[in-house]
Amino acid sequence: MQQILSILSLIPGYLIFLAIVLVILPTIAAILLRFCLYRHLKYLAVRARRLLGGAKQESTPKMITALEQRLADSNLNLDQLNTAAVIEGTYSHEKFYFLGLALNCDFIDSLCRILPNLLLSFGLLGTFLGITFNLSSLSQTITQIDINNVRNLVEELNRPLQGMGVAFTTSLVAIACSSLLTVLNLFWNTQVAKVSLLSSIEDYIDNIFLPKIQPVSSLESAISQFSQDFDGMVHKLGNTIEESMTKALSKIHHSAETFEHAANIIDNSQFPDKLASATNHLAIAQNQFSQSSLVLQKSTQSFEHNLVSMQKLTKKLLELNQKVNNIEQQYGTLVNLNQEKNIIEQSGLKEIQQELSKLIIQINKK
Fold first, then answer.
1. What is the pLDDT along the chain (366 residues), one digit of tens a residue?
2. Dihedrals φ, ψ of 98, to 5°?
3. Is the pTM of this model over 0.85?
4. How far apart are CA 94 and CA 96, in angstroms?
5. How far apart are CA 354 and CA 366, in angstroms?
């Protein structure tokens, strides 16, 4: 106990005040509010499920009573009713009592969900404030103390350093409170309780309450809607057919008038005479074309005959060319033989001359 008091004596008074006001008290308030809200939502969900089961109750919850009154006063059809939106709107005005105060459920739920983050911010704020003030005090201590007196220096520095260490406890307290709130929010999950409540109320409204105030069955409503749609479709179909027939008759009448006008023009003109004259000219042209075709056919036959003759002549020329080539080869052979004969004769004459020369020389020697 004395150790705790000694630690508390080291903490500056403003830090203790900030920790209590900004961290501890909001944490306690959030825990109580969260618990009351969760219990209120669970109570409403249980009552709604009892209504679904058909159990008789002495008193209906105010939220369900207000919702029933609103739906009973409205003249909306079941198909036009957005039940979920109506229930959400009614729930947004739902309140619960805490210490005699009527608090809005949505507001308290949002506050309890964002409070853990706010606690962390407040804890960090207290820590940085403590560090800032202690650093300022430490700076003054260092400037005023004698450096040669080490013991006095250590004693003077000890208190600011302890104060800075204690300043971090505000963050630890904030983290602890934030963690506690997060865990409690997990156990007392108001979001799940809200979803369960709204689902039960929507089930009760759609399947139990609305059929009582609007007993028209869905089948009859569907048949009535189908009858209205069918009548509208038949009416549109009749109008469409009538418009189509009118347009078709108008087109037929216009075509008849056009044909009659064309017939009158043909009657008034000399079209038959011109047509007969054109037919005669066409017959004459056809006869001339036939004669031209015969002439062209004869010319084609003559051309084919000339072409055959030219082919034969070409063949004879080729044969003649071959014979000329053979004659040239034979002539070349004869020329070569004649040249060889001349060479042989010349060589023989040379030998005879040499022999005669030798004989003459021998005769002269004798």
1. 555 555 555 556 666 777 788 788 888 888 998 999 899 888 888 888 887 776 666 667 777 777 777 777 766 555 566 777 777 877 788 888 888 888 888 888 888 888 888 888 877 777 777 777 777 666 666 666 655 665 666 666 666 666 666 667 777 888 888 888 888 888 888 888 888 888 888 888 877 777 777 654 455 566 666 677 767 777 787 788 878 778 777 877 777 777 677 667 766 766 567 667 777 777 787 777 777 777 778 777 777 877 787 888 788 888 888 888 888 888 788 878 878 887 887 888 888 878 788 778 877 776
2. -140, 115
3. no
4. 7
5. 19
Phi then psi dihedrals of residue 96, to 5 deg: -130, 160
Q: Where are the domains of the chain?
A: 2-215, 216-269
CA nearest neighbour of 190 among 49, 89, 61, 40: 40
Q: Which position has the token pair 């418009």?
A: 243
CA distance 333 to 267: 98
Closest among 66, 67, 95, 61 to 202, alpha carbons compared: 67
Contact indicator for 169, 176 with CB cutoff of 8 Å? no
Distances (CA, A) of 150 to 135, 147, 154, 160, 164: 20, 6, 6, 16, 21
Measured distance CA(55)–CA(48) in Å, rounded? 10
**CA dihedral of residues 302, 307, 308, 309 (deg, nearest 10):** 90
Using alpha carbons, select from 203, 160, 235, 254 the residue that is nearest to residue 48.
203
Angle at 161 between CA 158 and CA 166, to 5 degrees: 120
User: Among residues 93, 39, 18, which one has the least CA distance to residue 63?
Assistant: 93
Q: Classify each residue of 275-296 as buried b or exposed e, where b means 16 or more C-beta atoms within 10 Å of its C-beta.
A: eeeeeeeeeeeeeeeeeeeeee
